[in-house]
Specification:
The structure is a homodimer. The first copy, chain A, has about 350 residues and is of the alpha/beta class. The first copy, chain A, has three domains: about 45 residues, no CATH class; about 110 residues, Rossmann fold, CATH 3.40.50.2300; about 140 residues, Response regulator (Rossmann fold). Chain A is about 40% helix and about 15% strand. In chain A, helix 1 crosses helix 2 and helix 7 runs parallel beside helix 8. At the A-B interface, helix 4, helix 5, strand 2, helix 6 and helix 10 of A face helix 4, helix 5, strand 2, helix 6 and helix 10 of B. Strand 2 of chain A pairs antiparallel with strand 2 of chain B. The first copy, chain A, binds a DNA duplex (16 and 16 nucleotides) through helix 2 and helix 4. Chains A, B: Keywords: DNA-binding, Transcription, Transcription regulation. Chains A, B: It comes from Rhizobium azibense. Chains A, B: One of its GO terms (molecular function) is DNA-binding transcription factor activity. Chains A, B: Pfam families: LacI, Peripla_BP_3.
DNA sequence: CTGAAAGCGCTTACAG
DNA sequence: CTGAAAGCGCTTACAG
């Protein structure tokens, strides 16, 4: 049988150096009590040989794979890149790999995705759940990222506070009538954001909410939202509950000859890739994904290292709310001369 | 020491059934020659017990982890969701898991990411390279996804042909002067697309290329591109080399009072999430990511199963070019009454 | 400070 | 058709 892993293993280093594998293992891991000089010699030799420890061997022995699973409701979601990047970074920093699984489609696909990951032996799971799914305890520690309203949630952006930032910003700009625009009345995230906006309104301000239908991505753009008419009715600010909807709002207004921000302000959420690219650039509220990922991963890792059984439960200790941050861009500049002047200069 | 994996293992099933582990293993894998009835009994019992094979044990024994690595130049890239989703699906269908790594930043980060994955014991690697990186042969099979112009490339969308689709579409619409808009003259992908467009022009048509600077995502929108002036100069079609740039073009034109598509057509590439959402919806050219992923993964899997050594090289046998597909939406409807009528009806 | 030994769970020739 | 045995590479008590 061919040598499957061409690289050297512990015993090759051991024999080559005339010591035992146990000593090599201890020297390399820094755990056992090995003499300084021997440690040096062993490490040097290992490096020379280009030794790479076998994850399989280690995993079999320790019962830990060193891998975390990431389950997403829909990888095609535009927020995904940021989540994945942040989780991957946090995991890599903690010495873990990240296995992905897409629960595209329904809830049963989510369960399947979780199972696939568990079968691959992940030590823990980061789950961004679909709608308001309750995650039935998997057989490993689980961290859930969504909103405070989600049962079993561990950590999330403070969407409510994010909404308040939008409200305060629009108040500063002097807006009185706000139209909140979402596409999913069932979404915890969107409800938190909308609630935050309403709770943050100042006296004299009012808000209505418009739930628009979800677009089929293939089908081309849906019905016009009639936003120009809303401007006619006196709405001057459109607060979308996601940048994707903000984009829809912005382009429809522009197409219908409404000038943004001179005639109406548009704001979004999430600071998605295009928010800085469109003209005018979108004012938005950003999650601190790196912080969220860091909290989720470290909670998971702590749990993994603590409990010696793999029987996992939700890592619920924390329940962190990570504050969001307002990013002011041109789409919500106030429609007064001073601001317009400034805006022209830096555009 | 606590039982790390709570689940049953082969020997538990074996003793519980009074047979040998070898027989259980053979029955479950369907490889060995085990009597029909015994196979049935064993499988049934395994299912009852909720047996999940240990990947670690299997990996250690076989030298294969059953995991593929996916290396991306920048996970924050908006194309990433589609790539990841497609690769994950293709891999899962072939019985493989997908470990991700982000080579954010420079080329050395890419090498590091590859090493991290190799150290985790991936059986093969799917790499979307940065710029024109040459992938130095890693110690496992590698499939590279980029363009035909990329050295060592295995499979990619036919970006050139995609460009030709755009050219033919604009020709059909009666456009004469085309402005091609890209942001990276070094990019193989963008050059292929631009070349395809130019090569597909009909007699009487002409194209110029405008390379715009890359936006810093944080910095807010960059300088205006002066597109309205280009309309004044007689350009009637703006062919962006990616939907992100198309979005920038579309919103700037609209902000400056140019009506799309009445006064100018706008097209993009990639069918990114927002292309169907904006008003007017973007005409674009779509990659068949599922096909690309399927080809890359199956080439990898074939190579993994064939070669018994893990010494991998680039899986270069195929060199497939997967055709792209034109998706016509409102942003490039011709500016004649008939079309405008149709457009109103289905909008 | 160092080493001999056991064992994690699996698969695969080989023998019966 | 079935089983006994070896061994993948590692870590961890335990003994010296």
């Amino acid at each position: 049988m061919a040598q499957l892993r061409p690289g050297p293993n512990l015993s090759r280093i051991a024999t080559s150096l005339g010591v035992s594998v146990a000593t090599v293992s201890n020297a390399l891991s820094g755990k056992g009590r090995v003499s300084e000089q021997l440690v040096g010699k062993i490490r040097e030799h290992a490096a020379e040989l280009g030794y790479v420890p076998s994850q399989a061997g280690r995993a079999l022995r320790t019962g830990r794979s060193g891998v975390l699973g990431l389950v997403l409701p829909d990888i095609a979601n535009p927020l995904f890149p940021k989540i994945a990047q942040a989780i991957e970074f946090a995991a890599a920093s903690a010495g873990y790999g990240v296995l992905i699984a897409d629960s595209r489609g329904n809830v049963s696909a989510q369960t399947e995705a979780i199972n696939r990951l568990v079968e691959r032996g992940v030590d823990g799971l980061v789950i961004v759940p679909r709608r308001a799914t309750r995650i039935s305890a998997a057989s490993c520690p689980v961290a859930v990222i969504d909103t405070a309203s989600t049962p079993g949630n561990t950590v999330a952006a403070d969407h409510w506070q994010g909404g308040q930032l939008i409200a305060a910003h629009l108040a500063d700009l002097g807006h009185k009538r706000i139209l909140i625009i979402g596409n999913n009345p069932e979404s915890n995230v969107q409800n938190d954001r909308a609630g935050g906006i309403r709770s943050g309104l100042c006296p004299g301000m009012s808000a209505e909410t418009l739930w628009i239908e979800k677009l089929e991505h293939q089908a081309g753009s849906g019905c016009p939202l009639g936003l120009a008419r809303k401007v006619g009715e006196g709405f001057t600010a459109f607060a979308a509950l996601s940048d994707l909807q903000a984009l829809r709002v912005l382009t429809e207004l522009q197409r219908d000859g409404i000038h943004v921000p001179a005639q109406a302000s548009v704001t979004g959420f999430d600071d998605l890739i295009w928010s800085a690219v469109v003209t005018p650039a979108l004012t938005t509220v950003k999650m601190d994904m790196d912080a969220i990922a860091e909290i989720a991963v470290s909670a998971l890792v702590k749990n993994i290292k603590t409990s010696s059984t793999r029987e996992g439960a939700l890592v619920t200790a924390e329940k962190d709310r990570v504050p969001m941050q307002l990013i002011i861009r041109q789409s919500s500049a106030p429609a007064n001369p001073v601001q317009e002047h400034l805006q022209m200069e830096n555009s």
